Amino acid sequence: MPRVKRGVTARKKHKKILKRTEGHWGARHKLIKTARESMMHALRYSYRDRRNRKRDMRQLWITRINAASRMYGIKYSDLIHGLALAQVDVDRKILADLAVTDLAAFGALAKAARAALDQQKA
Amino acid sequence: MNPKTYSAKRDDLQPRWYIIDAENQILGRLATQAATILRGKHKPTFTPHMNCGDFVIVVNAAKVAVTGKRLDQKIYYRHSQYPGGLKQETLRQVLAKHPERAIERAVKGMLPHNRLGADIRGRLKVYAGPDHPHQAQQPILWQLPTADDVLAQQEQATAAPA
User: Fold this and answer.
1) Subunit contact B46:A60, Cβ cutoff 8 A
2) Residue B45 and residue A97: Cβ atoms within 8 Å?
3) Domain containing residue A17: CATH number
4) Considering only CB atoms, which chain A residues are within 8 Å of B6?
5) pTM for this prediction
6) B50-85 burial, b for 16+ CB within 10 Å, e for fewer?
7) What is the average per-residue pLDDT within B144-161?
């Protein structure tokens, strides 16, 4: 068996970690022990937040849809209820996109929702 | 259709200036309105990580109203950090001494308490009387823009560069 010195692999490992913690604050991208902890936390956060991202986006879409629908004098909850009644099957992602890129098309949907609500009341 | 959710760019932000008249308005209800505008949540292009709101000028802050007995029962606390340094003032005292502060505090408390919030806070201007020094910004009286207005503006914007 040849003799193995540990410096080579240790350096490799350290470099790998420090590469991943580039841009972390202060000692977190300089010192190996803090960098290692910082990396482990960062990986956990990114795993968790890939899942949370779906909720965050949905929340944002709802905020935007609400803003756009209020321009048409209808609030978010009424809009969603009205669309369900009108059997318009457009999800929040698309609604939010329409609100930004094509407000007139969004308006057509808002009017459909309003009509469905009025019809139900009558 | 673009698969990615829209995110406002700095050039997309064109903050407007709005005036809100506080006379006989209920303090908290006025404040939520102002906070919504400041934060930009009245726009379909709302982008949470950017200061995408508009400027808000509140005039007649001294004439703001509250319901019930709050003029004397709503108490503002602060502490000087010295022993026994708790100060308290009723809303009536605050309005008499610094008419702007009641609204400022109410609105600022409704905005995010972080660096972005600090930035947004700077866009709130409160004045005790009916006058304000922001004529140059051509502020307009706040009311929710209707879809027709917005559509007309968008058409203008696309027509202009052509």
Assistant:
1) yes
2) no
3) 1.10.1900.20
4) 96-97, 100-101
5) 0.85
6) bbbbbbbbbbbbbbbebeeebeeebeeeeeeeeeee
7) 73
